[in-house]
Hints:
The chain contains one helix and nine strands, in the order αβββββββββ. By secondary structure, it is mainly beta.
Amino acid sequence: MKRLTLLAFAAALLITAAPAQAQQLRFGVRGGLNFASADAEGDLFIEGTGSETAYHFGVLGAVDISSWFALQTEVWYSRKGFAEGDGGVALKLTYIEIPVLAVIAPNLPLSPRFFSGPVLGLESSCEVTFEGETEKCEDARPGAPRTKGADSGIIFGAGIGFDFGPGSLLADIWYNYGLTDISEQSDEIDSVKTRTWSISAGYVVPLGS
């Protein structure tokens, strides 16, 4: 976890520093839907887990290293969650997520984009439903899922861009594969790892010359 955090912030600093030879700095906003679930193991999850439809929104910054390669960092407010089979156990989570992405954008029609990189999530809120009651995770009764407060993962995605006005419109889809066991282990919970599909639209504009 510490190594991933250091990697994310080092790459973010690299983007912010914007080397002189970089062709272009870009800044933008985005928002969209999350289709969140989890790979959950333990006696509480014998019926499997269903998905939760939520949302994300945030800002992004990118620096072009070449005509086809860029580094990009973003900051999202992102809602996630899941429910066990019949909904008797459910988690609703909110994270501040910070991905650092390598973006390959070949010079082809419709401006396709392919991107991947690590993402760090810092939990800002958590609600758990357990035994018919919905409470904040820190106040949940014994046996209910509790979270560790942070998440990490790897993002794989693709999208397209369109020139529009002074900037570009983006349409992206990605998969966030959680690497961190976000649960506090108990007799009934072995592990919980997030799994999230996202679709997103954004708008970016160039900065400077």
